């Protein structure tokens, strides 16, 4: 089973289509219009699309077939950015001819084992242009985390039945 475990088609159901993308907001000051960006583990393309709306040219690398399929479906209706986003269904290690101004990966490293993390970090560094930057979200995982009760995050009516999202 891919890491998305069947949830990819439902990613956009619990937020507005113009939902704020924190990764893109973080990257925007580092990405001038016309910059080239490699988004490693692009998921359904949310960050890639947001960067493209601001004038970047984004290569969206996604190995999970479900996530990639949703990204393609979403991109098919985005005529405003279709020429600025290049989806690629591969994982870190895939040879690319381009080098990028910014190589970024968000919400991915914690899903990988130690050796896969090292591959991704080395790959991102090797894909940048001289003077380019690498931005990796490195989540801090701890067994000391305080337990939190489940809480309802969002709900939506999906035809005859309700859809709910808990965290």
Amino- and carboxy-terminal Cα gap: 22 Å
Shape: globular
Query: How much helix, percentage-wise, in residues?
Result: 10-25%
* Largest beta-sheet characterization: 5 strands, parallel
**Portion in strands:** 25-35%
**Estimated radius of gyration:** 17 Å
Total beta strand runs: 7
Low-confidence stretches: none
Q: Could you write a compact summary of the structure shown?
A:
With 167 residues, the chain is of the alpha/beta class. Helices cover 24% and strands 25% of the residues. It is built from 4 helices and 7 strands, in the order αβαβαββαβββ.
Polypeptide structure, described:
The structure is a single chain. With 167 residues, the chain is an alpha/beta fold. The chain has 4 helices and 7 strands. The chain is globular.
Features:
alpha/beta; five-stranded parallel β-sheet; 4 helices
């Amino acid at each position: 089973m891919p890491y998305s475990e069947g949830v990819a088609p439902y990613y956009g159901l619990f937020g507005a289509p113009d939902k704020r993308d924190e990764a893109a907001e973080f990257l925007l000051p580092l990405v001038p219009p016309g910059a080239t960006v490699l988004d490693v583990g692009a998921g359904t393309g949310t960050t890639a699309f947001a960067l493209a709306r601001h004038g970047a040219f984004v290569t969206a690398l996604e190995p999970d077939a479900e996530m990639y399929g949703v990204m393609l479906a979403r991109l098919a209706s985005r005529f405003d950015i279709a020429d600025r986003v290049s989806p690629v269904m591969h994982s870190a290690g895939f040879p690319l001819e381009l080098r990028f101004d910014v190589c970024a990966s968000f919400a991915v490293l914690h899903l990988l084992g130690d050796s896969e993390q090292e591959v991704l970090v080395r790959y991102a560094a090797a894909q940048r242009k001289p003077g380019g930057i690498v931005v990796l979200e490195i989540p801090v995982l701890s067994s000391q985390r305080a337990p939190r009760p489940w809480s309802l995050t969002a709900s939506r009516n999906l035809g005859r039945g309700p859809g709910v999202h808990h965290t």
